[in-house]
Design a protein that fits this description.
4-stranded antiparallel β-sheet, binds flavin mononucleotide, single chain, alpha+beta
């Protein structure tokens, strides 16, 4: 047996910094989203939500949430910091926020719901990358910011941001990064 077209053996992220922020074809985006939510999910609770951001909303959230929240903790930002913080989401053509939304359940632990939410992130990444897009899973500081979570429709008392999946165009194929030595992380009993 071989792994299907070796995609999984060679998959690589392209950093948001290196991707080109062109709008993502809407039918491709729909495919990525539809595949993204096909994840193992104990009890079929759907303990996650996907928030898709494109176009003007990326700039609005950059300016109204990310930059403003950054300035609260950094009252005298440098020009370079202002440039970075006011354009974070705009590095992507589309950015999908995955929100972990735990559900009270008598048997299924919240940990498993978190795992399912991470699976959504990884599925989105796999699907976008398999279609030839540049994509990266990022949290950065604003994934832990309450104003951001609220803006995305999350409940700051229980929900968490599992990640932002940045999707854009690839200019160059990424070079391989350091990977673990299989024998360091895999044991056969
Ligand atoms: C939950 C999660 C959060 C991450 N957040 C960041 C981040 O904030 N900044 C960063 O540089 N990389 C972050 N990364 C790592 C990037 O996605 C990185 O590009 C990735 O590990 C590249 O590996 P790959 O080619 O195997 O996909 C995060 C990864 C995960 C799983």
């Amino acid at each position: 047996m071989t792994i299907n077209n070796s995609f999984f053996s060679h998959r690589r992220s392209v950093t948001a910094k290196k991707m080109v922020a062109k709008p993502i074809n809407s039918s491709d985006l729909e495919k990525i989203l539809a595949a993204g939510i096909r994840v193992p999910d104990h009890g079929a609770l759907n303990p996650w939500k996907l928030i898709v951001m494109q176009g003007d909303i990326l700039r609005e959230i950059d300016e109204e949430i990310i930059l403003k929240e950054f300035k609260k903790d950094n009252p005298n930002p440098s020009q370079a910091e202002i440039e970075i913080e006011s354009s974070r989401l705009q590095r992507g053509g589309a950015v999908i926020a995955v929100i972990y939304k735990p559900i009270d359940h008598p048997k299924i632990p919240k940990w498993e719901m978190q795992l399912s939410s991470a699976a959504v992130c990884m599925n989105l990444l796999n699907c976008a990358q398999s279609m030839g897009y540049a994509a990266q899973w990022l949290t950065e500081w604003y994934a832990y910011n309450n104003k951001m979570l609220e803006r995305l429709g999350g409940d700051i008392n229980k929900d968490l941001i599992s990640g932002f999946i940045y999707i854009g165009m690839k200019i160059d194929e990424p070079t391989e990064r350091k990977r673990p030595n299989p024998s360091d992380v895999i044991t056969y009993l």
